[in-house]
Amino acid sequence: MCLILVAWKVHPAFPLVVAANRDEFFARPTSAAAFWKDAPQVLAGRDLDAGGTWMGVTCAGRFAALTNFRDPAQMRASAPSRGPLVAEFLAGSDAPQGYLQRIAARGRDYNGYNLLAGDGQTLWWSSNMGGSPRQLGPGIYGVSNHLLDTPWPKVGAGKTALTQALERLPDDTALFSLLRDDGIHPDAHLPQTGIPLDWERLLSAAFVRSPDYGTRSSTVLCTGEDGWISFDEQTWLPGAKPGGRVRYRLKMGRR
Fold this sequence. Notes:
There is one protein chain. By secondary structure, the chain is of the alpha+beta class. The chain has one domain (3-251): 4-Layer Sandwich (Penicillin V Acylase, Chain A), CATH 3.60.60.10. Helix content is 18%, strand content 37%. The chain has helices at residues 83-91, 96-104, 153-165, 173-179, 197-203; strands spanning 3-8, 16-25, 30-36, 39-47, 55-58, 63-68, 113-118, 123-127, 131-135, 139-143, 213-223, 228-237, 241-251. The protein has a 7-stranded antiparallel sheet, covered by helices on one side. A 6-stranded antiparallel sheet has the order 10-1-2-11-12-13, covered by helices on one side. Helix 3 (153-165) runs antiparallel to helix 4 (173-179). The longest helix has 13 residues, at 153-165. The chain is globular, with a radius of gyration of 17 Å. It starts with a strand and ends with a strand. 41% of the residues are buried.
């Protein structure tokens, strides 16, 4: 994922609300969100190159999502894929804190990442780029390709839009609208992450458009106080053309 916006224990009826975009090269093979045959409780898309995922949920209410940390100077082609970190948590039974502490010991094996993990009771974040595991209190959070709540323009704008969109739940139209924001932010507000300025501009939008690389999927996840989970995902093709859309409504503890 390249933008994850989270409302944790803010809305009285929906303790967890997630709106997220995954940005990737269109040539990278991917399967749409579905229940996995090898892990039947896991609902997630799948990276067909490495077998992991960028975001998913389970019928037990486990949730995890990941973004890459953008620092070209520290990228290693030999590093293992980061997607299995999400898949391992979703398919396992470790508490979020214990899981994040366990993988922190091997965090430097990977290129930079942010990882969110929750079990319906607690929500945690960590990064191998200087963010030790941290339990999140109630609030609105955002992460792109730096640390949690780094004030990049699309993170700040997204958090504001998420706060407003919560008022319209259970209608998720406003959540998908904020994920479709393709506005480019002014140069003066852009981070300097070591990539060319034209790419900083391109990636400053919540919804990224370019011929070969861009937003591949937009996902809205809501867990309800009533025990129901909704998972709604729109995939995107080159040229920002809509691909397929999947909608799941799960009762916690059932499949």
